[in-house]
Amino acid sequence: MDRFNEGKKISYITIVGNIFLAILKIVVGILVGSSALIADGFHSVSDTVSTFAVLIAIFVSNKPPDQEHHYGHGQAESIAAKILGILLLMTGFVLGYNIVLDIIKQEFNVPGIYGFWAAAISIVVKELMFRYTYQVGAKTNNQALIADAWHHRSDAISSIAAAAGILGANMGYPILDPIAGLIVAVLIIRVGWSIIVDAINSLMVKAPSKGKSDKIKNIVINTKGVKAIKEFRAHFSGVDLYIDLRIIVDSNLTVKEGHDISKKVRDRLLEDLKEVKEVLVHIHPG
User: Fold this and answer.
1) Which residues contact 217 (CB under 8 A, 6 or more apart)?
2) Which tens digit of pLDDT belongs to each residue from 239-268?
3) What residues form DSSP beta bridges with 240?
4) What is the pTM of this model?
5) Which residues contact 160 (CB under 8 A, 6 or more apart)?
6) What's the CA gap between 5 and 15, in Å, rounded?
7) Do 3-199 and 210-285 share a fold?
8) What is the domain partition of the chain in residue ranges?
9) Which helix (H) or strand (E) covers residue 281, if one does?
10) 3 state DSSP class of 205
11) Class (C level, CATH) for 210-285
12) Could you report the per-residue pLDDT of 92-145, keeping only the tens digit for each?
């Protein structure tokens, strides 16, 4: 499976679907007077924005390694997941605040039954989106797509709450519609927080500065037995620096002698640079 093309394909499909559902639920919600359906519509708006973020992340993560990101740009997907989580939190809090005000003011009304059918359509479409997006995300190991899939599932659940609230209001309990809207807001907040927690430990890896890289290379090349550096990669994880080296040594050395040289390189880097957390040294005959 082409990871890049599959990610683009699913993102385009979900953007179109989310725009359709957002317009449907917000317009119908306003026409029938359902705060739950309007809240659910704004949930779909956040879906659209988040999928745009995922699409951008897919393009960024497909870029090859460069001077500042020796391990590539794959963690852009984690950043997109964090942005998605923040958007969900903001959406949930704003919607919840407005609905709580309506409940306090006792501003209830009975929404039209067409709102129920709009929510039912959303339930089916969003569940299909969840299954498709999650399947592609799992197969391609794309964290941002998986996060977006759970966003679709949360929207399906919020549509269930909206449908139940509209039905309850039509059965003589008008307070159920804003309560359903509040449940939708809480669901949005919960999913947003969950996505942030899951993504928080995966940060964009960045190479050390040129000066720091040159210092590391000087230590390595000045270690007795090292003829040259074949490949050098390093990245920070928080404040810790991880180094991956491929060095060239005399081809006539024994395995033990080559191992001893690699150990000297590792020990010197760990001793001379306090931020170095781990060093991986590969030996190549020269």
Assistant:
1) 229, 232
2) 578 899 999 999 999 999 999 999 999 999
3) 237
4) 0.57
5) 119, 123
6) 15
7) no
8) 3-199, 210-285
9) strand 276-285
10) coil
11) alpha beta
12) 888 888 888 878 888 777 888 899 999 999 999 999 999 998 998 888 767 667
Residue 38: both structure tokens together: 């309007």
Q: Cα–Cα distance between 101 and 95 in angstroms, integer?
A: 10
Tell me the three-class secondary structure of 214-230, residue by residue: HHHHHHHHCCCCCCEEE
CB 232 within 8 Å of CB 245: yes
The predicted structure's pLDDT at residue 81: 72
Per-residue confidence (pLDDT) for residue 70, from 0 to 100:
67
CB 34 within 8 A of CB 166: yes
DSSP string, 131-145: HHHHHHHHHHT-HHH
Domain 3-199 sits in which CATH superfamily? Cation efflux protein transmembrane domain (1.20.1510.10)
Tokens of 110: 């009975």
Nearest 5°: phi and psi at 280? -115, 120
Q: For residue 94, give the H/E element and its range.
A: helix 76-104
Q: Quick one: tokens of 158? A: 């919020």
| 3-class SS letters over 28-63 | HHHHHCCHHHHHHHHHHHHHHHHHHHHHHHHHHHCC
